[in-house]
Design a protein that fits this description.
Layout: H1 3-16, E1 29-35, E2 48-49, E3 52-60, E4 72-76, E5 90-93, E6 102-109, E7 112-117, E8 127-132, E9 144-150, E10 159-160, E11 163-170, E12 176-183, E13 189-190, E14 195-197, E15 201-211, E16 220-227, E17 237-243, E18 252-253, E19 256-263, E20 269-276, E21 282-283, E22 288-290, E23 294-304, E24 313-320, E25 328-334, E26 343-344, E27 347-354, E28 360-367, E29 373-374, E30 379-381, E31 385-395, E32 404-411, E33 420-426, E34 435-436, E35 439-446, E36 452-459, E37 465-466, E38 471-473, E39 477-487, E40 496-503, E41 520-523, E42 526-531, H2 541-545, H3 554-570, H4 576-588, H5 594-606
Parallel strand pairs: 1-3, 2-8, 10-16, 18-24, 26-32, 34-40
Antiparallel strand pairs: 3-6, 4-5, 4-7, 7-8, 9-11, 11-14, 12-13, 12-15, 15-16, 17-19, 19-22, 20-21, 20-23, 23-24, 25-27, 27-30, 28-29, 28-31, 31-32, 33-35, 35-38, 36-37, 36-39, 39-40, 41-42
Helix pairs in contact: 3-4
């Protein structure tokens, strides 16, 4: 029996004894979240609400698009600054749980902004927020909502193959909180994207909208008929044109404008999207101006009303700033000198370039009139004799500095061995080796001959910086740290790198405050011999298997165990071998329905 059901039974028992609190009015509103197979976003979520007592509905079921038995949580953030922290909500839902994935909770909301997320490992992209209005500022006017139906039509006005219904709602007062539609007398459904209807026959779509102040519009309706189409299976054709002022190298000066054009000879274009530099896919409505200096890549695609999506196209281009000034380049030569000023054993040439306009694009050097070579690190020169090292730089706008040079002489002898440098990262870690709140980077360099002269580090894409003490990195996310050292003789070490991740110092809420902590996974008395580990959110393997819940049949229970353990294997929490042992134990058990359910309740009481 689930803790929620036990709580409800206890509340009913107290009510019989006259000890329960008096009945209160029903919550002023219901907010609904749904989830499916995606691990990057909830299927639907509210964006606004009113203050007061509220029913929270979280459904993660086959009806909401979950076809794999994947678990999700709906958890309210109670620690991140800038959000309300007065609601503690942490709901774990699975299509095969006793509630078939649909859970309800009653909370009290206050004006402000709430943040919510999923605590399941690997689902961290499932996050969002909604705003609780103070009541709408006296708003008593319902939103205005309209519908448009699009698609190919025959001479009688019928839609060929499919029709796409687009809803649009506006509210000049407190703002639109939700838009819903009902197709052919079915259930009211939250509207999040144009609705494609392809069933042949007559259809009626009702629609309505509610604002943040709670005003709901009158129901509108759109009726249309779909007839058998021609079977459009050809995706649209989409092209990109890049325009703007270009320099002699073909770079776009200050701004490049991307214009997309899509055509479809059969069912017509329904939508066009683009993705800039690996960002999110965005609906294309007008030419896109790109002003950031540097190289860019735009991907694009289009979908027709029959649902065919074109292959992704792509175009790349470079934007430079209005810049006619070449970079400034300086050089320094390091190493051990003799009394005559010659470098003993080796000279190390360091080139530094800067550009306040479009930025440095490349730095080059040449040794003794040889080929120009891309400069990436200090250049050691060990050949005995007189040398001349030339250097120059080019900025993103194509301006190149005048070549300059430095001359010196290397004589025999001296230290020619570079130092050794190592990186150590320390701090409090999570189960997946991420660092909580911050990580401390400590560098160590040794040189057995002339001794270490300097140690440098860089974090991510930052500049090389002289190392004097351990470096604390507190920015959340993945990081790369580099290290290098130079000895007194001017020998530079190889650059070494390390990677680590910093996560929030506040651990996610425990999804299972009351856990089954048996040492191994035991199902209906069958010991799988698999360690009963915490899966990463406070729940153990025994918790998510939930052998004492109600199941319609033994096969339904085994199906639940297979789905849960497969997800854990996919998240790297469980090995395939351990999963097989757990599934075998489930099959050998008699959990699920009838007498097995009664036995499960007896076990629950015994525990």
């Amino acid at each position: 029996m689930s803790p929620r059901l036990i709580a409800l039974l206890l509340a009913g028992f107290l009510a019989v004894l006259g000890l329960a609190t008096p009945a209160v009015a029903a919550p002023v509103q219901t907010l609904t979240w749904t989830a499916g197979d995606s691990t990057t976003a909830y299927a639907s979520a509210p964006t606004g609400a009113l203050p007061g007592e509220t029913t929270i509905v979280f459904e993660n079921s086959e009806a909401t698009g979950n076809t794999t038995g994947m678990s999700h949580t709906l958890t309210f953030d109670t620690s991140t600054p800038g959000y309300n922290h007065d609601v503690s909500l942490n709901v774990l839902a699975n299509p095969f749980d006793p509630q078939n994935g649909r859970h309800e909770a009653v909370v009290t909301l206050t004006p402000g902004k709430y943040r919510y997320f999923c605590t399941i490992p690997g689902h961290t992209a499932m996050v969002g927020e909604f705003v609780v209005s103070d009541g709408g500022g006296g708003d008593t006017t319902a939103p205005e909502v309209t519908a448009s139906v699009a698609g190919d039509r025959d001479p009688s006005g019928n839609y060929l193959g499919s029709a796409t219904v687009t809803l649009s709602a506006t509210d000049a007062g407190s703002g639109v909180a939700s838009v819903e539609y009902q197709l052919d007398g079915g259930t009211w459904t939250a509207y999040s994207a144009p609705v494609v209807v392809n069933a042949v026959g007559m259809h009626m779509l009702h629609y309505r909208a509610t604002d943040v102040a709670g005003n709901t519009s009158e129901e509108g309706m759109a009726h249309f008929t779909i007839v058998q189409g021609q079977g459009d299976t050809t995706p649209p054709t989409v092209t990109a044109a890049i325009t703007g002022q270009q320099d002699p190298s073909g770079n776009y000066v200050d701004v490049a404008t991307v214009k997309l054009t899509a055509t479809d000879a059969d069912s017509a274009v329904a939508s066009v999207e683009y993705q800039l530099d690996g960002g999110a896919w965005t609906a294309y409505t007008a030419p896109v101006a790109v002003t950031g200096a540097g190289e860019h890549m735009v991907h694009f695609r289009a979908t027709d009303t029959a649902g065919n999506t074109s292959p992704e196209g792509m175009s790349h281009f470079t934007v430079v700033k209005s810049d006619t000034t070449p970079p400034v380049v300086t050089v320094s030569v390091g190493g051990t000198k003799d009394d005559a000023g010659n470098y003993v054993g080796k000279a190390t040439v360091t080139v530094v370039a800067s550009d306040t306009g479009s930025g440095v694009a490349a730095v080059e050097y040449q040794v003794d009139g040889g080929a120009w070579t891309a400069y990436a690190a200090p250049v050691p020169v060990t050949a005995v004799g007189a040398h001349t090292v030339g250097y120059r730089a080019r900025d993103v706008a194509g301006n190149t500095s005048a070549p300059a040079s430095v001359s010196f002489t290397v004589v025999a002898g001296g230290d020619t061995t570079a130092p050794l440098v190592s990186i150590a990262v320390s701090g409090k870690q999570t189960g997946d080796w991420s660092y909580l709140g911050q990580a401390t980077v400590t560098l160590t360099a040794t040189d057995a001959e002339s001794g270490v002269a300097s140690v440098e580090y860089k974090v991510d894409s930052g500049a090389w910086t002289r190392y004097t003490a351990p470096v604390v990195v507190s920015a959340l996310g993945a990081h790369t740290v580099g290290a290098r050292a130079t000895d007194v003789a001017g020998n530079g070490s190889l650059e070494v790198f390390g990677a680590f991740t910093v996560v929030t110092a506040t651990p996610p809420p425990d999804a299972c405050p009351v856990s089954d902590t048996r040492e191994t996974v035991v199902i209906g008395g069958v010991d799988s011999q698999v360690e009963n580990i915490d899966i990463g959110n406070g729940c153990t393997l025994n918790d998510v298997i939930d052998e004492n819940a109600e199941y319609a049949s033994h096969d339904r229970f085994v199906q639940h165990v297979k789905a849960v353990t497969q997800e854990l294997v996919g998240n790297g929490v469980l090995s395939s071998g351990d999963r097989n042992r757990i599934v075998t134990a489930a099959i050998e058990s008699d959990i699920g329905g009838g007498a097995a359910a009664d036995r499960g309740r007896d076990v629950k009481k015994a525990l």
